[in-house]
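Quick one:
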Amino acid sequence: MKVVIINSGSSSIKYQLIDMPENAVICSGMIDRIGLETSNLTYVTDSIKVQETLPIANHKIGLEKIAQLLMDDKVGVIKSTSEIQAVGHRVVHGGSSFTKTVVITEEVKEKIRQLFDLAPLHNPANLEGINVAEEIFNTAQQVAVFDTAFHQTIPVVAHKYALPNYLLTENKIRLYGFHGTSHKYVSENAIHYLTQNSVTKGSNIITIHLGNGCSMTSVKDGKSIDHTLGFGPMNGLIMGTRSGDVDQSVIFYLVNSLGYSLDDVNTMLQKQSGMLGLTGFSDLRDIEANAENGNVECQLALDMNAYRIKKYIGAYTAVLNGLDAIVFTAGIGENSSYIRKLVCTDMDYFGLELDHAKNEVRSKEIREINTPDSRTKILVIPTNEEIEIANQVYELLLS
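Output:
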C-alpha cells in the first residue's frame, strides 16, 4: 500500500510517500517558511535531491508544488495518482469529537472546520491540505490522524480547569494537548532505547518538542499524563509567533484599558508574539545568528525560551515523581545545540549533565548527549510523525 503523508504545520509542510507495511520511504521532503519570499523546498529520493528557494504564499500552493514533483517526468516517483491508495493527514485539534484515527468524510471535515477557533494556525491549513489532496489523489482514501488523541490519557486532575463544572461537562472546555503524534513517536522510541540498553525501563520521561510550535509532555509508563498546551495550542512554552503562558489579566487590560478588540488580542497572541514579538524574527536560525552578532534582544529571547522549558522540567519531574530521561525533538530540538545547552545548564539537581562535545554532533539517529555520570539521560530523537501517521492509517484501513 502506497501512502502519502501530509503534515501541515503553521508555517511548513512535511511530506513522505511510504510503502506500507514495510515503512519504506520512497520519497520525502518539506517546505518551510511558508508565507515568506524565501520559502525552502526539499524533495528527496534514494537517488535525487531537489532543493529550491522560492516564494510560496500558502499551503495550497505548497501542496500543488509537491504533487508536481511526485509526478514529474524527471524526478517523480509515480506515474499516476491512481498508484496512491491512501493519504494520511495530520490534524492538530480533534476536540471532543475525535479520540482516534478516522476515514475523512464531509461530516469529519465539517467538525474540523468547527474547531478552527481552537487551532487557527493549524486546523485551517490541515483542512486545506485535505481538500487539495482530495482533488489531486482523488482515488485514494483520505484519513485524519489527530494530534490530540495521544493526550486522552491525561487524568482529570490535570486536564480539568478550575472553572465552573458545566464548562467541562456541557461545553467540553479542558486541556486537550497537541503534537501528540510526535510525542507518542519519540516517547515510544525513548522507552525502547532505554530498555534495550539496560539503562532503565523508561518509566518517567519528559518529551520536548521544539519547532515553530513548542510543547512538552510528561510521559509515565508510555502514557501522556500532562502537557504544556491546553484547550488550544497557545499556552505553555514560548513559540515562534505564539506567546505561551501569559497572565489572563493582561488580556482584559488590553481590551478594557488600551482599546484593543478581542480579535486584535487574538491576532497578537497567535501571530505577533513569542520569538517574533521579542526579536522581530520567528525563525530560530535567524535569532541565533543575530544573537551571536551581539543582538541583545535576540539573546534575551533565547534565554527566556530556555528558562520556560526549565520551569516545566521541574514541574513535570514533580508530577512524574522522578526522571529517567528528557528527549529533545522536532526542528529546533533536534538541530539547535545552543538551545539544548541553555536548557541543560545548571540542571544538575535533576541529574542532567550535558556532554558539550556530544551535543554538537549532528545525526539522524537516536543519540545520548549526556556525560557518563549523568543520572538522567539526555536524548535527541528525530521525530517522524509521518511514519507514525502511516502506521495508524495502515492499521485503520486493514481493520
